[in-house]
């Protein structure tokens, strides 16, 4: 039997950037207010295919001064503008009420940088901020990272839409319902991984869809003094989540990008030590044999789970 013709509706689905999905109402309203052309939403960067392309992304050294390092330690301008300050847990997480991120002064931006450095994650509700303003705020804290693997609103403002990920071929199930189910930091294979991430939730489900954060400071502090001494100064090999072809030897199959970074990071604004490791992307500790190195990232990641 001959195949049936593709209908006009089906053709529209194939050519639509959303793959036929309707943009959720809250997101649609925000994007239209910001002047985003929904006929071309989201855009997709040209994904790299080869190792040398990925190594070249932001590969040059960039001088960076953390804005939190020049902030008032008491953060009077920022905290004084808030109607309520809630520390979510003892070690991690603070919620500020009555503050609009789009209206922060330069002094408040610096103090927010210090608050993020101290509390690891800061929450703001009911924000009136466009994607363009969100990007501009990010540029205050450093060079905005353009993720090479995900759709975008505009360059540097990425889209996290689980239904779209499923349409693009990601298999959602109980173990991985559209997101990452293990502790990780994105793009650890880059020469200078991101220091701050800003998430704006347009559409929040009634239940589920949770994101968990863990304090690298507390994870480090909970290690025994002997183990901390052992890890201080050591580096590890961190690999990319995606694999790429070697242009000079494509028949060898996909390979991961690998970089060497310190296992214990010292935050430039606080001077505090943080454990920077995860089981999925920390391959081995430099200077140790593979059997010796294998268990340390696993144990260190388990420490993260204790300090969520």
Shape: globular
Main sheet: which strands, in order across?
A: 1-2-3
Specify the oligomeric state.
Answer: single chain
C-alpha Rg, in Å? 21 Å
Distance N to C terminus: 58 Å
Helix and strand element order: HHHHEEHEHEEHHHEEEEEH
- Largest sheet, strands/sense/barrel: 3 strands, mixed
Question: What's the tally of helices?
Answer: 10
β-sheet strand percentage? 5-15%
The percentage helix is 25-40%
Q: Give the averaged pLDDT, no decimals.
A: 86
Low-pLDDT segments: 1-14
Q: SS-based structural class? A: alpha+beta
Number of E-type strands: 10
SSE arrangement:
Blueprint: H1 8-15, H2 25-33, H3 51-55, H4 76-81, E1 84-87, E2 94-97, H5 106-119, E3 122-124, H6 131-140, E4 152-154, E5 157-158, H7 162-167, H8 216-221, H9 225-231, E6 235-244, E7 255-262, E8 264-266, E9 273-275, E10 282-285, H10 290-306
Parallel strand pairs: 2-3
Antiparallel strand pairs: 1-2, 4-5, 6-7, 6-10, 8-9
Give a quick precis of the structure.
With 308 residues, the chain is α+β, with helices and mostly antiparallel strands.
What does this structure look like?
The chain has about 300 residues and is an alpha+beta fold. It is built from ten helices and ten strands. It has helices spanning about 10-15, 25-35, 50-55, 75-80, 105-120, 130-140, 160-165, 215-220, 225-230, 290-305; strands at about 85, 95, 120-125, 150-155, 155-160, 235-245, 255-260, 265, 275, 280-285. The strands form four sheets. Strands 1-2-3 form a three-stranded mixed β-sheet. The longest helix has 17 residues, at about 290-305. The radius of gyration is 21 Å and the shape is globular. Mean pLDDT is about 85; it is low at about 1-15.
């Amino acid at each position: 039997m001959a195949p049936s013709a593709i209908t006009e509706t089906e053709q529209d689905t194939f050519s639509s950037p959303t793959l036929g999905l309707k943009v959720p109402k809250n997101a649609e309203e925000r994007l239209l207010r910001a002047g985003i052309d929904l006929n071309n939403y989201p855009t997709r960067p040209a994904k790299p295919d080869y190792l040398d392309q990925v190594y070249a992304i932001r590969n040059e050294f960039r001088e960076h001064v953390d804005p939190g390092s020049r902030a008032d330690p008491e953060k009077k301008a920022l905290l004084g503008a808030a109607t309520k300050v809630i520390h979510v847990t003892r070690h991690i997480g603070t919620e500020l009420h009555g503050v609009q991120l789009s209206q922060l002064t330069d002094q408040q931006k610096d103090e927010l940088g210090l608050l993020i450095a101290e509390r690891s994650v800061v929450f703001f509700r009911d924000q009136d901020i466009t994607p363009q303003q969100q990007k501009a705020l990010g540029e205050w804290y450093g060079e905005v990272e353009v993720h090479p693997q995900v759709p975008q609103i505009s360059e540097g403002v990425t889209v996290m839409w689980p239904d779209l990920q499923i349409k693009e071929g990601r298999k959602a199930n109980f173990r991985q319902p559209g997101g990452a189910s293990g502790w990780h930091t994105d793009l650890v294979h880059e020469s200078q991984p991101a220091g701050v991430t800003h998430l704006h939730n347009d559409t929040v489900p009634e239940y589920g869809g949770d994101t968990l954060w863990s304090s690298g400071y507390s994870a480090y502090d909970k290690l025994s003094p002997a183990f901390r001494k052992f890890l201080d100064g050591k580096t590890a090999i961190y690999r990319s989540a995606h694999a790429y072809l070697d242009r000079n030897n494509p028949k060898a199959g996909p390979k991961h990008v690998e970089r060497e970074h310190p296992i214990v990071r010292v935050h430039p604004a606080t001077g505090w030590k943080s454990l920077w490791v995860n089981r999925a992307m920390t391959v081995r500790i430099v200077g140790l044999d593979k059997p010796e190195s294998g268990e340390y990232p696993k144990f260190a990641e388990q420490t993260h789970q204790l300090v969520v």
